[in-house]
């Protein structure tokens, strides 16, 4: 009998997959700590440890399922295949709340708004809102999604309602629309701005749409344009809007919202548009026998008249022949009409001495009387 033991052992060994190793910079990016380039700088600065040992090479690979990673001594959870499902939250952040997981000064942070169950999942914020700003803030455990949402490659728009005090002129709006340079020398991309109707006594409300992630960009822009920011609220990030979520509350994103976020940054393929229903094939028209249009459009009165007419051939009508005059009714006292065949006109004698153009000879003219009348015309 053939020996299958070695084959079975080899098959079992091939089915056992090697652990998925990740470069340390990609692992930190997946965890939402920073970008890959910034992770290389952290490694070079000696701020990253793996299993309690400092690493000096940015190309070091780790097993996220077994290795323990720490950043400045704090453990970092690396998402990996087989781990728990990711969590996606949206928060309506109030003012005077830090967009961090801890604060050395003891100020209130976004973790204080989350429920104990949400805090246990170790979510982190995507992007930031400064201490005196409010509105939409996304949080997740999905490091890849967080990295893409904050990467300038994707340019996802963010919408803000900004209440300012000062003279909002057309020239200032055009400066923001065309792009401006901050006092510190940073070049800003053009933004969309639109003034919204509001109570003039409370300042001017401007709707701004940004695609950059420069720190405190709106406040610094308004500062350089001599405008004072009274309030700043983010209402949308990419395809996700704040909707009716109460201030100081957080909720999980729906599966549809998560899918739209991933589609916006290329992590999921966008669904194909629905196919248009195909038109049913038009049935071919049956050939009908030709019919007499004259009989179709004639009224009964006209048809009767046609039936009463003599049956002359079409060629006779076209030749100009008329009905026989003998067939016509005669009036009393009328003589029989002459036949065309018997009627003969006198032929002109071409050799006569008659002058051309119908002139008569002098002898043939009747003589006038002395009274001036023609005797030949008087009877």
UniProtKB/TrEMBL annotation:
InterPro entries: PsdUridine_s_RsuA/RluB/E/F_cat, PsdUridine_synth_cat_dom_sf, PsdUridine_synth_RsuA/RluA, PsdUridine_synth_RsuA/RluB/E/F, PsdUridine_synth_RsuA/RluB_CS, RsuA_PseudoU_synthase, S4_RNA-bd, S4_RNA-bd_sf. GO terms for biological process: enzyme-directed rRNA pseudouridine synthesis. Residues 367-379 have a biased composition (Basic residues). GO terms for molecular function: RNA binding; rRNA pseudouridine synthase activity. Keywords: Isomerase, RNA-binding. Residues 284-302, 309-366 have a biased composition (Basic and acidic residues). Pfam families: PseudoU_synth_2, S4. Residues 265-379 are annotated as: Disordered. Residues 22-82 form the RNA-binding S4 domain. Its EC number is 5.4.99.-. It is an enzyme of class 5 (isomerase). NCBIfam families: pseudouridine synthase. PANTHER family: PSEUDOURIDINE SYNTHASE FAMILY PROTEIN-RELATED, RNA-BINDING S4 DOMAIN-CONTAINING PROTEIN. Belongs to the pseudouridine synthase RsuA family. This is Pseudouridine synthase. The lineage of its organism: Bacteria, Pseudomonadati, Thermodesulfobacteriota, Desulfovibrionia, Desulfovibrionales.
